[in-house]
Amino acid sequence: MEFPGIPAEFKDLKVSPNPFDLNSKELTLKNFSKIAILFKVKCTSNKRIKIEGCADILRPGNETTVPIKKQVDNVDGDALYVTYTLVGRQWHDERMSAFKCWERAKKQAVRTNCLTIPIRKNSKTREEKEKNKDEKEKDKDRSKDKRKEKSKEKTKDTTKSED
């Protein structure tokens, strides 16, 4: 069968991260089923988000990544959509084209499922988080040093007054 039906409780396609953080720069898809999965990744706005290698056939047990880049700074409220269907053994060959497969699926009105992956709002990059963490540590160290200096000054003052 060229396009076997998708079982009602099909949960063998895992997508991460979910929600998506644009700082991670790629979406990972993993096929845990014994059947190949035809997928395509879309977004709410091609002007705000660029998706490279947006369609493919994911063989059983395989994993792939889809590079995703933000085109503008504000992507709050945007989402990614992973549309997929199952495909028969004739599509398992590495030389098969996902785009041709989608054409055939459209002509045959094959049922698809869609996963909505929200894009996380206002997330910080790892570098920003590390920088903030480093700054907090430095501030703690400065505070400690100031307390030590004050303590030393008090000790000096009490020593002088005893003389």
Task: Describe the model.
With 163 residues, the protein is an alpha+beta fold. It has a domain at 13-120: Immunoglobulins (Immunoglobulin-like, Sandwich), CATH 2.60.40. Helix content is 29%, strand content 29%. It has two helices and eight strands, in the order βββββββαβα. The chain has helices at 98-107, 126-162, and strands at 13-16, 26-31, 36-43, 49-51, 55-58, 63-70, 79-87, 113-118. The strands form two sheets. The protein has a four-stranded antiparallel sheet, with no helix packed on it. Strands 5-3-7-8 form a four-stranded antiparallel sheet, with helices on one face. It is elongated, with a radius of gyration of 27 Å.
Please tag this protein with its features:
Immunoglobulin-like, 29% strand, alpha+beta, 2 helices, 163 residues, Ig-like_fold, four-stranded antiparallel beta sheet, elongated, 8 strands
